[in-house]
Design a protein that fits this description.
Distance between the termini: 9 Å
Largest sheet: 4 strands, mixed
Number of domains: 1
Low-confidence stretches: none
Structural class: alpha+beta
Helix content: 10-25%
Number of strands: 8
Mean pLDDT: 93
Radius of gyration: 13 Å
Order of helices and strands: HHEHEEEEEEE
């Protein structure tokens, strides 16, 4: 089970890779949607959300199309961080206008967010 909103739409803030960990901890502390098993997605989990034949919306502040199912909230971030690191300074995520994996400095907040997923969706 995925959050309908990404972290930008939910919190109103772009987040760097270190901040997304705090964001998910806070979701669990607050029992978001009555659950305490939210986690950061893997890159492979994020890729499953990319649907090139569907256009959910444009990324907030840009004309970049977000290719996800319309079940998700509109006008969020087109670039979502995963839980995965790539070395000491970089981390991975997915760009939802192309479906490509990005490898960016962990400190970058440039229009980046995450979408939490539940560990045990049953």
């Amino acid at each position: 089970m995925w959050m309908k909103q990404d972290s930008y739409l939910h919190s109103g803030h772009w987040l760097n890779w270190m901040e997304i960990h705090d964001y998910v901890r806070q979701l669990n502390k607050e029992g978001f949607a009555h659950y305490i098993d939210w986690k950061l997605p893997t890159t492979q989990e994020l890729i499953t959300l990319y649907e090139p034949e569907k256009v959910n919306s444009s990324q907030v502040g840009k004309e970049m199309k977000i290719h996800t199912d319309p079940i998700f909230a509109k006008n969020g971030s087109g670039s979502l961080w995963s839980a995965e690191e790539n070395g000491r300074y970089n981390a991975l995520g997915v760009v939802f206008n192309t479906g490509e994996v990005f490898n960016t400095n962990k400190k970058s907040r440039s229009r980046k967010a995450t979408r939490a997923v539940r560990v045990n969706p049953n």
